[in-house]
Amino acid sequence: MFDDRSPIYLQIAEQIKNDIVTGALAEDEQVMSTNQYAAFYRINPATAAKGFAQLVDDGVLYKKRGIGMFVAPNARDLLRTGRRDSFFADVVDPMIREAKAIGIPLKDILQHIRSWGGD
C-alpha cells in the first residue's frame, strides 16, 4: 500500500482524503483509530498519529475526546475545492501554456476534450 515516493504519514493523510472525496467516508463518520490503523497496516502508531494530526490541522478531521476521530462536516467540499484549484494550476494552466507555445488553438483543445465526452 505504501511506496517510497513520500513519507508514510503523508500517504496515510492522502488515502483518508481520497476516501472522503470519493464518499467512502462520510461527514461526521468515525475513522479508524491511530492504533487500529497502525495495526492494520503494520506501521508505527506515531506515524499514523502524525498523518491524522495533519488532517486535523487541515480541518478534514476533528477529535471527540475519549471517542475518536471523525470526518469534519465540510471536509468533502474543502478537499474538492482544493483539488479543483490544484487541477487548474498543475494540469490545465501548463497544458494551455504548452499549447500556445506549439501553436495549438484553444478551440482545438476544446474540440478534443468534447470528443472524450465532455460537455
TrEMBL record:
CDD domains: WHTH_GntR (cd07377). Coiled coil: none annotated. Residues 6-74 form the HTH gntR-type domain. Keywords: DNA-binding, Transcription, Transcription regulation. InterPro entries: Tscrpt_reg_HTH_GntR, WH-like_DNA-bd_sf, WH_DNA-bd_sf. One of its GO terms (molecular function) is DNA-binding transcription factor activity. This is GntR family transcriptional regulator. The lineage of its organism: Bacteria, Bacillati, Actinomycetota, Actinomycetes, Propionibacteriales.
